[in-house]
Amino acid sequence: MPMIKIDEAIALAEGRHEDPFSVLGWQKEGKSGRIAALVPGADKVWAIAPDGKKTELPHLTHGLFVGPWKGEKYRLRAKNAQATWDFDDPYSFGPVLGAIDEYLIGEGTHRHLWQVLGAHAITHEGLKGVHFAVWAPSAKRVSVVGNFNTWDGRRHQMRRRGATGVWELFIPGLMAGEVYKYEILGAEGNILPLKADPVGFGAEHPPQTASLVRELGLHIWGDGSWIAERESVNNIHAPVSIYEVHLGSWRRVWDEGGRPLSYHELATQLIDYVVDMGFTHIELLPITEHPFDGSWGYQPVGLYAPTIRHGRPEEFAALIDAAHQRGIGVILDWVPGHFPADDHGLRRFDGTALYEHMDPKEGFHQDWNTLIYNYGRREVKNYLLANALFWLEEYHLDGLRVDAVASMLYRDYSRRQGEWVPNQFGGRENLEAIEFLKAMNAQAYGGAPGIMTIAEESTAFPAVTQPVHTGGLGFGFKWNMGWMNDSLRYFSRDPIHRRWHHNELTFASSYTYSENFILPISHDEVVHGKGSMLGKMPGDGLSKFANLRAFYAFQWAHPGKKLLFMGQEFAQGREWAHAGALDWHLLDEPLHRGIQAMIRDLNHLYREMPALHWGDCDPAGFDWIEPDDAEASVYVFERRAPGAAPVVVAANLTPLDRTYRIGLPEGGTWCEIFNSDSGYYGGANWGNLGAIEAEDIATARRRVSAEVYLPPLAVVMFTPA
């Protein structure tokens, strides 16, 4: 009778065999062959031929059954005191991954990595099942475990694919919806904590941490026209007004235990609201799967899985489709800058520092207690590059806002001397991360035309938004953190002191066009004790609202695309809390409702007036008229666009009303098209009765001018009649 060496049999039974496919399944032996089946818990096992004839396989040891078999096709039947069950032997199937996939994975250039790694419901050699593949080069053994095998790592040990470090296994009979993890025998021979799939497309509801087999492509898209034309709404001359949203706390269903809205509910409620408010884009705080609610998604474990907190992957796709069919772009906040150290995640995935650096001076973020990807390792770089493309291709997202770029660019980020490792030239720049970001942008723009990428980058690193081929990082836009800090500092001051800090609002013009900027009032400004936007404003209740109206109006008039975090559009009174919902009841109060009405009007004005958006990233679209009147705290500037009517903006940022002469680019009648002191917005309704008349009086380097009324703490805008 065919036999297997006892030490080899015991190694298989104990999950220590590094090549189970060399023993299990049908193996040619002598003139025919033999079957070896590892079925722990079975008392008897039979091999069943296609014609129904069965042959019992003798029990060798430790749940390993071995017997002769002439043909190659068979099924197995197992029996114990509790049950009898039939199944197809995973070890009777050949590999799924092809030679080209192996080559590209090994080279680190597989652009569609998610199509070969992860868990895929497929038909292989005529049978339906699930193909699992995972990268774990230093592992001695990798097994798929789940409810389907009682989480027993002996039952589905995987096949190593040569030098790539990839392990794979096709398990017939499994379907989408299965819960699974990987059990890994590490490089030192120890069993590691069970690992979620790095390329898993779904996950259990937290606090559970297993991956779920999910099918991609279930949603039937209807956004072809949007995709074909979206470059026209994502370019530097287009109006871009972004509503930043944390899906879990935008609204909640309080009569159902305070649960967050589903993707299905968001596809109507959120999209209806964004359309009504006139925003052009939604930016989602990270929806990649994450174990800790309090990280807001910024500590992701499942980079390839939209969070189950709001529904299934196809329901997330339907949300994006719904936005597109209403003319709204969707940007994902993407986090390639760090990952958490949860045991079920990427940390020491195969028992070694696989995705991260071994040295904590390179691989650990002190600020966030998280790990840093090893961007210089080709497989890790490939993993992240493919992930960017995954969201753009599979979910039709219109852009990626890349979180914490500054922390990626510099090896000494938030570190003291001696706590970081210089690059190969002795410098502080992270050369590998820089090359990764360039490759990401080149691949994203090349693979998904019409999208945008956005850098959250707070330093003076050069050419962030210049093309890669000219030496830049290749981003489409960059958050203007300098403008944000200076303007918030200015507006938080008591108006009596603003004359001494006049340059805090003019300084940005010295670098406004050095990059393609977005002006962000993001979630970061209303957390961690920073209070709300309304709370930052000085004065009593009415003054706070007047200052906030002036701030927003100044933001919308200033060069740069716009971004506002949810709740700030109606002057949320308290700091944002991720575990609750926005204070929508505040809209019952006229002052809050007025702020909301003003943001709505600003968005529509911004979109309808080319002068207010065409030159956001082009110096031909802006000129100062009066930048120097610090004593009066007055600012006057012009916005313009080729072939379009100019807009003159005047801001009076003191509580004193003023009659003020402003220069104008041309004569005639000028209509007052916006006034932040309007009664519709909760103001005192002081203004210019709808229009002003230019006079032939030279003022502020303009040959004509007009005397205008500037309400206190207000911004007004004019355009030729």
What does this structure look like?
This protein is α+β, with helices and mostly antiparallel strands. 22% of the residues lie in helices and 25% in strands. The chain has 17 helices and 37 strands. The strands form ten sheets. Strands 16-19-22-25-26-27-28-29 form an eight-stranded parallel beta barrel, surrounded by four helices. The protein has a six-stranded antiparallel β-sheet with strand order 30-31-32-37-34-35. Strands 1-2-6-5 form a four-stranded antiparallel β-sheet. The longest helix has 19 residues, at 590-608. The N and C termini lie far apart (100 Å). The model has no long low-confidence stretch (mean pLDDT 96).
Briefly summarize what is shown.
By secondary structure, the chain is of the alpha+beta class. It has 17 helices and 37 strands. An eight-stranded parallel beta barrel has the order 16-19-22-25-26-27-28-29, surrounded by four helices.
